[in-house]
Give the backbone structure.
Amino acid sequence: MINEANQRKQPPGSPRLPIFGNLFSLDIMPHISLMELANKYGPYLMLQLGQVPIVIVSSAEEKKPFKNMMFLSLAAMLLMLLMLSTTMKPQ
């Protein structure tokens, strides 16, 4: 269960529906819908697509701090896959 302290740390976003989340907030042209939502809620936006929460950063300037974090996450995943592949030996 999400408590109040955790909810305050989340970026703003449009109201969600149970089960569907924000699926109905996106139109037939999602890039335009996302632009409109970013204009309304700011550069950081939280959407929930079904049961999956997604944070969207809509400004190129705001994305810079996340660039290294994404690279490190990818590097960690690749290292984990490499370690798994070397420890699993075919019989």
About this structure: The longest helix spans residues 60-87. Residues 40 and 54 are 17 Å apart (CA to CA).
